[in-house]
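In this section we turn from sequence analysis to structure. A common task in structural bioinformatics is to predict how a protein folds when a small molecule is present, because the ligand can shape the pocket around it. The inputs are simple: the amino acid sequence and a SMILES string for the ligand, here pyridoxal-5'-phosphate. Study the lines below before reading on.
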Amino acid sequence: MSCYFTERFAELVPYTPGEQPQDMQYIKLNTNESPFPPSPGVAAAVAAECGKLQLYSDPESRVLSEKLADVYGVCSDQVIMTNGSDEVLNFAFMAFGDEKSPLVFPDITYGFYPVFAQLNHIPYREIPLTEDFRIDPEDYIACGGTVVIANPNAPTGIALGLDVIERIVAGNADHVVVVDEAYVDFGGESAVSLVERYDNLLVTGTFSKSRSMAGARLGFGIGSASLIRDLNTIKYSTNPYNVNRMTAAAGVAALEENAYYMDNCRAIIANREYTAQALRALGFEVLDSSANFLFARCPGWDGGELYRKLKARGILVRHFDKPRIADFLRISIGTREQMERFIGATAEILEG
Ligand SMILES: *Cc1c(COP(=O)(O)O)cnc(C)c1O
């Protein structure tokens, strides 16, 4: 068989998305989606936009970026809108990472970081989390590269305080610090308030988790106008129309109904606390989560085995077959009813 794939990417190991099975209805607790539908205005806004699909979308996403800037208390030239936050992360890696500024991130974090680094041939260094799966901020002070920290971290769910993030940003003035806030609405402290004071800080966010729009692909970056200009140079060299018309309209409607999503976040936090308590009562060790998922292990049980037994009972969770965390499960937080069924199934499995 001939091979046409360029040698440049011969070693590239792509990201593995969580499974999206089409064969049967699972209780889906494996990809950190919201269990709640988008707010009512979103469907109407998307429908209205469909009649204009013969026209390209606004490459500046002006209406949307102004709305987002408004909600986050920044100027619209401090904002870039992207096709999911994966895209703004890729843009940031391309724009700010090279041999002189290698990427630095934890060994246990979002699995896309090493993939984007490899794709773009940017050297990277992984710093081990501590024994108890925490980020030690001292490891990230003046570490000589572009720092990437998910806060709260994934898949641990553990959050750093704003004071700690500020110390890391201030301690790396010669390099960009990317703070990936995909989960911040579930109990983290956002670093957006620091953007005014630190021109090396880029905060990224997504509509995929707290705003129930994973299928629409909408993400954003917030940083100094100069960082945003650099990201736009990459964007206009890649895909100027990265945010399509329907998604942009959906985003505007979602921001207009922001209170609905913040209410949903409160419900998810309550369900998370219920689930954490129930798992601990079953003997699990559960890490402190500020996200819409829990990371937990049961002494004496292999994570893969629990995952398979749950799947056989119609419940999907995420298992990472990776050193240090192979005995853990990552459980997305759904509705109260879904979590009760998850706890019931787990209890059954443990009883054998
Ligand atoms: C889900 C996730 C993202 C990006 O999701 P998009 O759907 O591309 O916006 C980014 N970072 C982390 C840590 C995530 O878990």
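The pocket of pyridoxal-5'-phosphate is lined by residues 32, 84-86, 110, 150, 154, 180, 182, 206, 208, 214, 219 (CB under 6 Å). As an exercise, try to locate the residues that line the pyridoxal-5'-phosphate site and compare them with your own expectations.
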